[in-house]
Amino acid sequence: MALPVQGGGEFVLKKLLLKAPAKVNYRLDVLGKRADGYHDLRMVMQRVDLCDEIEIALTETPGIRVKCGSKGVPDGPGNIAWRAADALVKLSGKQVGIDIGIEKKIPVAAGLGGGSSDAATVLMGVNELLELGLSDERLMEIGVKLGADVPFFIFKKSALAEGIGDKLTALDQVPSLWVVLVNPGIHVSTAWVYQNLRLTSKESVTIIRRSYGSAAEVCELLSNDLEPVTCGKYPQLEELKDLLLAAGASGSLMSGSGSTVFGLFEEEQTARQAAAEIAKERGWFTAAVKTI
């Protein structure tokens, strides 16, 4: 249950309880640096069913209030979910109150897109509560100004993401897989990773298929240009990949800029056993989740 945010005596007009899923990157290619300082990327992105829980309430008291209570996640205007709600309230021109409670299940600064997913979920929720009738395409245009991964979570499909991550193409077929996530509690700054990335000219860029029929075909896709930077500073992440492979994963990779590493499994029992063993042995955050 998400954290309740209504104050004493405040009248709630409408309320939604929503789930904001995490993501992993099956592939992350950095193609070059743009004139605006961002990087051109090519990613294959997949949602998984590890979700933050978000309560959004429409109240009588004007203003936006966000409560999370999770270490490393600010309340109020410093939270990307607040900025998402603010963008739609300003667009609506209405004097309304939006209270947001977030219960974090997704590790923070972990390469799993938790903040971006929260923002996307708030955009979709506030759009519904205020009856704005904005299309997903319009919400994605608003979302990309908040963060490059936000449109993907509004898109709601496994996708090839290009540009800064905002140009999305749905994949025709991707197998349902079990994913074991392991996070050693290291907070990685995405900005730091990109600042320390050494771009090399790619003589040939692998063609990304739109359809994958098996776990083996997905594993052939696994690649992350940011991995050498993050693993160079935190070599234990390479050890994590080896642990997952030894536990039966068909393939393993760091997600996003890290520090979460994931392994792909075809069988639920093997995935849950691997997660339990790693959690017991290392005491790190682990979760066996399914792709969605």
Question: What do you see in this structure?
Answer:
The chain is of the alpha+beta class and 292 residues long. It has two domains: 12-170, Ribosomal Protein S5, domain 2 (2-Layer Sandwich); 178-290, GHMP kinase, C-terminal domain (Alpha-Beta Plaits, 2-Layer Sandwich), CATH 3.30.70. Helices cover 30% and strands 30% of the residues. The chain is built from nine helices and eleven strands. Strands 1, 2, 3, 4, 5, 6 and 8 form a seven-stranded mixed beta sheet that branches. A four-stranded antiparallel beta sheet has the order 9-10-7-11, with helices on both faces. Helix 1 (80-92) links the parallel strand 3 (63-67) and strand 4. The longest helix is centred in the middle third of the chain and has 16 residues, at 114-129. It starts with 11 loop residues before the first strand and ends with a strand.
List the helices and strands and how they pair.
Blueprint (H helix, E strand, L loop, with lengths): L11 E22 L5 E21 L3 E5 L12 H13 L4 E7 L10 H16 L6 H8 L6 H6 L3 E5 L3 E4 L7 E6 L6 H6 L19 H7 L1 E2 L2 H7 L2 H11 L4 E4 L6 E5 L2 H15 L2 E6 L2
Parallel strand pairs: 1-8, 3-4
Antiparallel strand pairs: 1-2, 2-4, 2-5, 5-6, 7-10, 7-11, 9-10
